Amino acid sequence: MKYPKVADKSVLVTGCSSGIGLATAELLRSAGWKVFPTARKPEDLDMLRQAGFDAVKLDVTSSESISTAVGWVMAKNDEKLGAIVNNAGFGMPGAIQDLTRDAMRNQFEVNLFGLQELTNLLIPIFRKQGYGRIVNISSVVGRIALPFMGIYSASKFALEAISDAQRIELSPDRISISLVEPGPIRTRFSTNCAGQGEERLDTKSSRFGAAYKQYFDKRRNGGMSEDRFRLPPEAVAGKIKHALESSNPKIRYRVTIPAYLGDWAARFVPSRLIDKVMIRHVKKRFG
């Protein structure tokens, strides 16, 4: 399907303190977009403002924060907005049996519920304008589940399902939804995951306790098998730019070799074979 051109090249990009969000904000600005990047922490907002951005404070776990941020952007941009890039994300490692209900809920609040609440507030604006682009940052683990990142994978699987359903629902309005599915990217995500696991997992009572330390060290210091495939965040930003500017944006954009392999495996490889590969992978990683 062909979609109308974004007449007002303005975009709200969430999760811009570093990594994919920051790279996207910088690339789109250089391409002539008016970028409203978001962050939660005052120091990150200061960094963005010093770089010349109209930065927006946003905590996607708070309905009040979402509403306030949207109102601020609309007032700042003459009640218009061309696109939303939903990049803010949160992952906590750990065997599913070791995660508390709060730990599971928090990942869904950030990766799904808050993202969708924000998007739903913008859809009436897009519909009234007659144009609008939605780009949701998913992951290869939204196509093939990763052990010890199971709840994070589940939140991305859910994001894929919601995006597929809403893309059809919005087709009469010609509002596009694209999914970007990165594999391993050189960002702070792995380091942040390790920190979350060390802080919030009860490693002493877990049967995987001894293995977690090695796992967190590898996440923080390198040594993960996928490290050799990592690409810079600019590789993802380039795909996002295409989704915003093309008259025929793709439904899914894969980034890195593991993302393409994961998608292919999810579609064509029998589940039992995937299990065997994953078991071998886990044994190698955890011993």
Number of helices: 10
Q: Mean pLDDT, nearest integer?
A: 94
Low-confidence stretches: none
| CATH T-level topology | Rossmann fold
User: H/E series, N to C?
Assistant: EHEHEHEHEHEHHHEHH
The CATH C-level name is: Alpha Beta
Helix content: 40-55%
Order the strands across the largest sheet as they lie in space.
Answer: 3-2-1-4-5-6-7
Instruction: Please tell me the total number of domains.
Output: 1
Characterise the protein shown here:
This protein has helices at 19-30, 42-50, 63-76, 101-129, 150-169, 189-200, 209-221, 233-245, 257-268, 271-286, and strands at residues 10-13, 34-39, 56-57, 83-86, 133-137, 176-182, 252-255. It is globular, with a radius of gyration of 19 Å. With 287 residues, the protein is an alpha/beta fold. The chain has a single domain (10-282), classed as 3-Layer(aba) Sandwich (Rossmann fold). Helix 1 (19-30) crosses helix 8 (233-245).
List keywords for this structure.
alpha/beta, Rossmann fold, seven-stranded parallel β-sheet, 10 helices
Would you summarize the structure shown here?
The chain is of the alpha/beta class. Helices cover 52% and strands 11% of the residues. The protein has 10 helices and 7 strands.
Give the helices and strands, then pairings.
Layout (H helix, E strand, L loop, with lengths): L9 E4 L5 H12 L3 E6 L2 H9 L5 E2 L5 H14 L6 E4 L14 H29 L3 E5 L12 H20 L6 E7 L6 H12 L8 H13 L11 H13 L6 E4 L1 H12 L2 H16 L1
Parallel strand pairs: 1-2, 1-4, 2-3, 4-5, 5-6, 6-7
Helix pairs in contact: 1-8, 3-4, 4-5, 6-7
